[in-house]
Amino acid sequence: MESASEMLPFPLLQTPIESNYRACTIPYRFPSDNPKRPTPTELAWIDLFRNSIPSFKKRAESDPTVPDAPDRAEKFAERYGAILEDLKKDPESHGGPPDCILLCRIREQILRELGFRDIFKKVKDEENAKAISLFSDVVNLNDAIEDKGKRLESLVRGIFAGNIFDLGSAQLAEVFSKDGMSFLASCQNLLPRPWVIDDLDTFKLKWSKKSWKKAIIFVDNSGADIILGILPFARELLRRGTQVVLAANDLPSINDVTYPELIEIISKLKDENGMLMGVDASNLLIANSGNDLPVIDLAQVSQELAFLAADADLVIMEGMGRGIETNLYAQFKCDSLKIAMVKHPEVAQFLGGRLYDCVFKYSDVLG
Fold it and tell me: Which domains does the chain have, with CATH numbers?
């Protein structure tokens, strides 16, 4: 169900929101551009979304919850493709000019109008089950690292490796449909440092000197991302005395983990005493962010999350959609971390990096 409550600005954003905050990172156009003609950047991103249509159509065709799924999937592909063509001719059509939020929103609206609620449900369930079975092994490998700095780097690499599981990327969706990916192999095969944005050494130094009282983590994908990447990192924060709030989507979008799914995952990983592999998980909270897209506009989050975030001193935006395509340059009143893998060539080009490069952007506000 969609959240009925009023949405609020994320309280840790630097104010005023109206002048300082712009969700989308990459400028698709500038004020001097002709409003009736698409820019090269707009055309490139429209093509990127067009290239994802076959993988979305394939998932929709096999959705067992939707009557006449193949016919409706064909309608989705036709309708979304036609709207993208319209935007190429007139950027101001369909609520434009386009940016990553609008292009995602239109895609999700068409799917929902045609009766598709969660076309990636089957693959999410499969990947969650696989990742849950590997959780203890990943945690034990990290716990065996005595040096705190090296353990932190191992946990960070785990977040990057888990973040590869992204079915919103046409290239990665193709790889997963063939043979899946090995989490540990992904950890070992990350591009070498320095990454395109690499503040890990600064974060290590801060990690060694202070503990945050409360961290808000905007989580991304199901499967290895949340279970083998974020949760071992969150567990380490809990062990250090930090209260951790995991903010997950209200509604399904691509293979992003949702609020109800995350509650179920945590319940399966905790033991009967509420422990997460030996660590007290009573300070691990799950919040509904109010979001329904793979990107996020922090000008509108749920009342629940706004309340929980008010006294946090660390914000983590995880994943390419939340931490790079939106919010890479978002400024917060507290320490912040943007951590994600670059999975679109267009994003790599914008950042001046490589495909599958890593972004680890840390901002220290509190000193």
Answer: 32-113 (1.20.1700.10), 121-363 (3.40.50.10880)
Pick left, alpha or beta for residue 74 (phi over 0 → left; psi -120 to 50 → alpha; otherwise beta).
alpha
Distance (Å, whole) CA 302 – CA 258: 14
Beta-sheet pairing, 275-276 with 279-280: antiparallel
Q: Computed from CA positions of residues 222, 223, 225, 229, in that sequence, does the dihedral angle turn out positive or negative?
A: positive
State the Cα–Cα distance between residues 223 and 308, nearest whole angstrom.
25
Amino acid at 58: K
pLDDT tens sequence across 7-49? 999 999 986 565 678 999 999 999 999 999 999 999 999 999 9
Token pair of 366 as six digits: 């509190």
Task: Quickly tell me which residue has 């340059």 as its tokens.
Answer: 329
What is this structure's pTM?
A: 0.94
pLDDT (tens digit, 9 = 90+) per residue, 105-129?
999 999 999 999 999 999 899 889 9
